[in-house]
Write a structure and sequence with these properties.
The protein is of the alpha+beta class. The chain is built from 14 helices and 14 strands. The chain is globular and about 65 Å long.
């Protein structure tokens, strides 16, 4: 039975922070359109058009056709036959990202980058000098436009969860504030799939439990959610109440990027593995490319029908430079496990041993580029 819960005692400090979330609008694609005006107004994908290519970013014109990052290039072309592919230029994106972060630093030292084009800023102490968090966000947007020719969307709120929701609310070139008075009601009306951290599989599982909106989620007890979603249940419990006590961590370093999926039917045949792994690799590669990181280690996770779990890993001397390399290493690690001793209920792929790509230029990977 779906549980209900009383509201916890309120935290007297939870509304005192002022958090700004800045997210560049279609960053990679917008840089390409800025640098080549012939591409303005056209459906554009940054990535490789090859059969096993992956879309790293899509312009808003392409998004109207359903094209998005982490999509297989062949699928993107099918959705939008007029789609124009351009190869990524990560050195240019990193340089523009440095310009953007220099703008952030004029207002606060508490900057938590999430990727080359996205960051949280804690401007609580800066408000006394600049008047309000909204004024700071507007000034940042104006400076980014003036100095890079690009647009950014800004969300302002009293915690990270709501600030990120706010930046998505009026994209592109948006600015939206979720005040403490608005927070609970805003979350209650939110479709469960709009919660950050709730992917399609989790949204489907929640729908089976009768959870379709933030209001539905709020009715659940912490025990009910953790029993069904593990540690993530604590996050869902707090998010449904518009609560998020995580600080903006300026020293945050991402150690790995991973994706996994649980199958409706256990895998037993090798022929089922490549198509099962492909979307995981696409998701990992899109986050890896967006994050401005370089990595050297691929790890696969296998969970059998009896819930026993194993992992296998392989590292490269040089940074991994293409999604096809991740695919090759993943399949090489999985192949010796077939035929499996029992059905496989879950597969996962992780890239780790990560470093900032702004470090000295890596040597070309011997395994080749996509």
């Amino acid at each position: 039975m779906v549980g209900t819960a009383m509201l916890p005692d309120s935290d007297p400090h939870q509304h005192s922070r002022r958090i700004v979330h800045i997210d560049m609008d279609a960053f990679y694609a917008s840089v390409e359109q800025r640098d080549n005006p012939d591409l303005l107004g056209l459906p554009l994908a940054v990535g490789s058009p090859r059969e096993r290519g992956v879309v790293a970013a899509a312009s808003y014109e392409a998004r109207k056709f359903g094209v998005h990052s982490a999509m297989a290039s062949v699928t993107a072309r099918r959705k939008c036959p007029e789609l124009i592919f351009v190869p990524p230029r990560f050195d240019v994106y990193r340089a523009v990202s440095q310009q953007i972060h220099a703008v952030f630093a004029r207002y606060t030292a508490l900057i938590q980058p999430l990727s080359l084009d996205e960051a949280y800023l804690d401007v609580t102490d800066a408000v006394a000098e600049h008047g309000s968090a909204t004024a700071i966000a507007r000034a940042i947007k104006n400076s980014i436009r003036a100095e890079t020719g690009l647009t950014a969307s800004a969300g302002i709120s009293y915690n990270k969860f709501l600030a990120k929701l706010a930046s998505d609310y009026r994209k592109p070139d948006g600015l939206f504030v979720i005040t403490p008075a608005m927070g609970p009601g805003f979350v209650e009306a939110l479709a469960i799939g709009k919660f950050h951290g709730v992917g399609p599989a989790t949204a489907a599982k929640m729908a089976e439990l009768g959870i379709h909106t933030g209001a539905d989620l709020r009715r659940q007890t912490r025990e009910f959610l953790t029993a069904r979603f593990g540690k993530a249940g604590d996050y869902y419990y707090s998010a449904a109440r518009a609560e998020d006590h995580r600080p903006v961590n300026a020293d945050r370093r991402r150690k790995s990027i991973g994706a996994e999926t649980t199958f409706a039917r256990d895998l037993t045949s090798w022929d089922d593995v490549p198509p099962a792994v492909a979307p995981l690799i696409a998701k990992v590669w899109a986050a890896y490319a967006k994050g401005g990181l370089i990595g050297r280690t691929v790890t696969i996770k296998v969970k059998y029908a009896d819930f026993q779990q194993i992992t296998r890993a392989r590292s490269c001397v040089d940074p991994i430079a293409a999604a096809t390399v991740v695919e090759r290493l993943s399949l090489d690690l999985l192949r010796p496990l077939f035929p499996p001793p029992r059905g496989i209920r879950l597969l996962g792929v992780t890239l780790s041993n990560l470093e900032d790509a702004a470090a000295p230029a890596p040597r070309q990977l011997a395994l080749g580029l996509a």
